[in-house]
Amino acid sequence: MAQMNMIQAIRSALDVVMDKDPNIVILGEDVGYFGGVFRCTDGLQRKFGEHRVIDAPIAEGGIIGTAIGMGVNGLRPVAEIQFADYIYPGFDQVVSELARLRYRTAGDLTSPVTIRTPCGGGIRGGQTHSQSPEGIFTHISGIKTVMPSNPYDAKGLLISSIESDDPIIFFEPKRIYNGPFDGDPDKAAVSWASHPKGEVPGGYYTVPLGKADIVEPGDDLTIITYGTLVHVAQAAAKLTGFDAEIIDVRTLAPLDVSTLTDSVNKTGRCLIAHEATRFSGYGAELAATIQEHCFWNLEAPIERVAGWDTPYPHAFEWQYFPGQKRIAAGIRKVMEAG
Amino acid sequence: MSTRSRLHIPHPSARPGDTPDFSYLELSPAGAVDKPPIDVRVRDIDHLSHGLVRVLDDEHKAVGPWNPNFEARELQVALRWIMLTRIFDERMQQIQRQGRISFYIQSLGEEAISIAQGMALRPGDMCFPHYRNQGLYLYRGCKLVDLMCQCLSNTRDMCKGRQMPIMYHSKDANMFSISGNLGTQYPHAVGWAMASAIKGEDHIAASWVGDGSTAEADFHHAVTFAAVYQAPVILNIINNQWAISTFQGFAGGERRPFAARGLGLGIPGIRVDGNDLLAVYAVTVWAADRARRGGGPTIIEHVTYRGAAHSTSDDPTKYRPKDEWDAFPLGDPLLRLKNHLISEGHWSEKQHAALEKELRADVLNAWKEAQKSGTMTEGPYLDPATMFDDVYAETPEHLEIQRKQMLALED
Ligand SMILES: Cc1ncc(C[n+]2csc(CCOP(=O)(O)OP(=O)(O)O)c2C)c(N)n1
């Protein structure tokens, strides 16, 4: 086992699978010689050569479109989109092509592309370096949407994603690249070294897609969340003193329904938290699912805490970010109801 | 030729540790490129996309058919704007390093483009800039203090704290809003120009992108629409040799200059020495006259060099030689203009030093003034409740509810 932050874990995943499978190629802006603006592919071009770690023109539609073509021709491309905010020029290729190729050809033609992209706020990135667009992608049939919350899962899930025959959108919450973040921007940064999930095997292993993780067992209420907010929710629950069961969804689509509903059927109370905007957000899908499966066991209305329905404002990053206070208020509301 | 296909991976001429090598840049001597009349047939000027329009020669003289024959006074003013832009950048970079703004992007080495084009365009023309056009904002009337307040996200910020530093806009100065997403402004400029023609006005539009951003689909949409409708627009490509870590070859600049991007669609392209204020001014006036008189769009490629890091988040020594700018054959636009004025007897080191001192004081005073409207650590602060304004023309109920929820948690 080694200590890794999330960047190192992602790099290690790429390294391990590329060693194993010569058909895996990486392409993206600044990923080659430079190793990526967040350093996730650092050293990989030196090791695997310029035909397997490919610097791309600044054209997200081109990156995703050509990755699809490479995939059809037998390669297993891992495309990096520098920021999730810049995935939109490639959106048509994701929605109309990547997600639908298998279906429209009755399985004859497929392309196992994985798209990696850093998402989320908390780095003073303003509205074009902070977005969480996962809900837009979970809405599309034919692609799987993944978001890890720690180095161990990041590596294991990324390996599973790359080896999956389905196309995957793999979101990396950039705020927790270097350490877990409990939502308090005034606290000194913590590194992954002090976190159990910062222990990462150096070799091959997988974390299965489609399986949520119970991060903390508890009896009072269930908090369903993912990405950076897993850590914020843990801190918020502590703040309130309630015994929360905290679930990290990890694979947003397809969803591990039973882990979520078993928990809510047990606790009878449910809070859903995500950083993305609230209206028509992924939380709405979670709430509907819980309502369908747990209605008769619910003791309080399901509560959602999410980003406000505005773009991410540079100056008001911490008023926008659903931090400890907001999640704690949500927990209290769920606990006091009914 | 080989017997099988192969993949070409573009390689820059030098990486860290190598000797800088600009032998790939095709240069024309100053004065060598002809200046056609603006009603020339487009197909007769393909060569302008491959040559390099230059006015200032190695002896600092202004020569050739593109010489705009400026009065000394006009050039002194131009120099002043270039110097102001550079000093402003220097100060803002320093302020970011002190942690007092979150981010900054300098335009070091590219200042002449913004200033020359500011001089060549009219106030009624609309500019759709990219993030290295701060000189254009200044030239077109935005105050230093207002740009600084935007970077501070303070109570005087034109964006009300909603944008990262440097993403200015100014309706009064006819300067569009800078987007974080590359190249999106290009089709906007074409649409604005089309509207101007639809309305029968003679205002034109101009837009700017970096060499790297020409790869984006929006660039190609813009060029196609501009060509089809012969929109009165100037489409500028700032070829500063580097995107972030990838050189201009990764945007397809290896075999044909960027100025030739529109030739297949019948858009003339002019390649110009972007570090030569006189040359940039002259080609811009040429393109603007054409556009205003129904001649349609022009693509201008400005050959220049990104003298500083990509942004404050970047360390260029990781991907290019440290001393590359020193070896750049087109030099430093500020020094070239200064040396021209000196060689003509219209400027002196003493005047230069005095002006520099004056401008530094102006920038410092603007910074003092800007801080009065708040910094990241000291008030006055913007009211967070304003975060919910301007999402829509009228704030819908769900946002009013969220505004109340947010305020309830604030106190
Ligand atoms: C759509 C989009 N993709 C990627 C980025 C990230 N990015 C910001 S600047 C940049 C390089 C742009 O290079 P160039 O167009 O040459 O302009 P320069 O910075 O050299 O002036 C990249 C890749 C972005 N801002 N928007």
TrEMBL record, chain A:
What cofactors does this protein use? thiamine diphosphate
Q: Where is the Transketolase-like pyrimidine-binding domain?
A: 4-179
Which enzyme type, at the first EC level? oxidoreductase
Its Enzyme Commission number(s) read: 1.2.4.4
One Pfam family name from the record? Transket_pyr
Q: Alphabetically, which GO biological process terms does the record hold?
A: branched-chain amino acid catabolic process; response to nutrient
- Asked whether the UniProt record includes Oxidoreductase among its keywords, one would answer yes
Q: Name one GO molecular function term.
A: branched-chain 2-oxo acid dehydrogenase activity
Q: What InterPro entries does UniProt report for this protein, alphabetically? A: THDP-binding, Transketo_C/PFOR_II, Transketolase-like_Pyr-bd, Transketolase_C
Per UniProt, the keywords (alphabetical) are: Oxidoreductase, Thiamine pyrophosphate
Q: Tell me, what does this protein do in biology?
A: The branched-chain alpha-keto dehydrogenase complex catalyzes the overall conversion of alpha-keto acids to acyl-CoA and CO(2). It contains multiple copies of three enzymatic components: branched-chain alpha-keto acid decarboxylase (E1), lipoamide acyltransferase (E2) and lipoamide dehydrogenase (E3).
What is this protein called in UniProt?
2-oxoisovalerate dehydrogenase subunit beta
TrEMBL record, chain B:
Per the record, what are the reactions this protein catalyses? Answer: N(6)-[(R)-lipoyl]-L-lysyl-[protein] + 3-methyl-2-oxobutanoate + H(+) = N(6)-[(R)-S(8)-2-methylpropanoyldihydrolipoyl]-L-lysyl-[protein] + CO2
Q: Which SUPFAM superfamilies is this protein grouped with?
A: Thiamin diphosphate-binding fold (THDP-binding)
Domain of life of the organism encoding this protein: Bacteria
Any single GO molecular-function term of the entry would be: branched-chain 2-oxo acid dehydrogenase activity
* Alphabetized UniProt keyword annotations: Oxidoreductase, Thiamine pyrophosphate
Family matches, as InterPro entries: Alpha-ketoacid_DH_E1_comp, DH_E1, Oxoisoval_DH_suAlpha_N_dom, THDP-binding
What this chain does, per the entry, is described as: The branched-chain alpha-keto dehydrogenase complex catalyzes the overall conversion of alpha-keto acids to acyl-CoA and CO(2). It contains multiple copies of three enzymatic components: branched-chain alpha-keto acid decarboxylase (E1), lipoamide acyltransferase (E2) and lipoamide dehydrogenase (E3).
**What protein is this chain from?**
2-oxoisovalerate dehydrogenase subunit alpha
